[in-house]
Amino acid sequence: MMPVLSLELILYTTALGLISIGLAGVVLSRHLFRMVLALVIAEAGANLMLVLAGYRWDAVAPILTTLGEHPPMVDPVPQAMVLTAIVIGVGIQALAVSILIRIRQRYGTLDRSQVAERMDAEIADSAGIPRDVSQESPLGERPLPSLPDSTVEIRGGHS
Amino acid sequence: MRNLTGLLFAGGLGFMLLAIASGLDFGAPPMLVGGAIQSAAPQETGATNLVTSVVLGYRGIDTLGELSILFAAAAAAGLVLGRRHTTAGTLTEGGFVLKHGGAMLFPLLMTIGFYIIFHGHLTPGGGFQGGVILAAAFFLPLLARPGARLHHGMLSVIEGFAGSSFILIGLAALSEGEAFLQPMLVQDTLGQLVSAGTLPLLYLAVGLKVGAELAGLLSHLAQTESEV
Fold first, then answer.
1. A123 CA to centre of own chain
2. pTM above 0.90, yes or no
3. Across-strand partners of A111?
4. Nearest alpha carbon to residue B211 among B143, B116, B124, B122
């Protein structure tokens, strides 16, 4: 008699759900700081998954409390790896936040597309070249005017 | 359209991982190394906290690599944020309770931080956890009194001393004819404060390094943030 919501299903769904939510946040969010937070959520899910990998039924924490015979203990290796992962995660978050602070100071916004736009414009400006435009972007009004002679080749005109 | 694609991606990935995980044998890990460590670790390292004996004994070089990653992240954050701090006089003064409460918490946080570091081989805790509490102890006065500064030169000295002593303990094991970072001086006093040989010394080095690094990082972030 297996209940529908068993313990392992709940635990696995929680861990993998956190990973999925975090990745969805990274893909969907337009604000850079929210991306960092989503990464933190995904990392929590990954850590939970690692700890679950070392779980053993009816086992205690891997710390000896009595000399001699001890009850079964969970696997200490995944726990040590999670300890490592948490500390490295903190370092990565601090680095990401400090880069975000610099971006905010430089461009005045943390919106992903706006930052990319301004960064692109600044690079093109400092290099003294025209902005690189997408080959798919429409040139202007419809019906479209004929392509300028200089860009006919790279845009695949006159084929 | 873009949102739909993202949702589909995340949902599909979650479903795939769940399908893979449902094939795992929950509660009975197939790895044999955990059981082997559990039976051998108390004699080989003398630590009752088996996670500590894994972190510092069996995977000591990993911990050294982790410390270097943390050091690299802290150094890179310091490089990105730069040294210009213009916080003087821009922030409002904290109240009486905030200032003196922060000052009173400092010795308590130091005590519990060092307690957790020194008992890392006996109870849950250790250098990383205690180091974070030490960093909080040094960061708290910065929050309570915005004009306060941390002595960054002193922090660098502590950090460098702790990091090099970690490596020196490893090299000492090497000079004794053992492997790098192999636990030495294991006494026959399992479960007491002075036990586990070099592991508490290594954890003390880790705790000081993590504490100094995080405190420097946090003060960097806090002082640069108010610059805008």
1. 25
2. no
3. A31
4. B116
Which of B184, B181, B206 has its CA nearest to residue B195?
B184
Chain A nearest-CA distance from B6, in A, is: 6
- Residue B2 vs residues A21, A22, A130, A134: alpha-carbon distances, Å: 16, 17, 28, 18
Q: Each residue of B1-24: pLDDT tens digit?
A: 778 888 898 889 888 988 888 777
Residue B51's nearest CA partner among A50, A81, A86 is A81
The yes/no answer to whether this complex scores an ipTM above 0.85 is no
How far apart are the C-alpha atoms of B161 and B158, rounded to whole Å? 5
- B206, B127 Cβ separation under 8 angstroms: yes
Q: Do residues A17 and A45 touch, judged by C-beta distance below 8 A?
A: yes
Phi-psi region of A141 (alpha: psi -120 to 50; beta: other; left: phi over 0): beta
Strand partners, A31: A111
Distance from C-alpha of B228 to C-alpha of B224, rounded to nearest angstrom:
8
User: Is A148 at the interface with chain B, CB within 8 A?
Assistant: no
Q: In chain A, what are the domains?
A: 9-57+74-125 (1.10.287.3510)
Residue in chain A closest to B29 (alpha carbons) equals: A54
Query: Is residue A25 within 8 Å of A34, Cβ to Cβ?
Result: yes
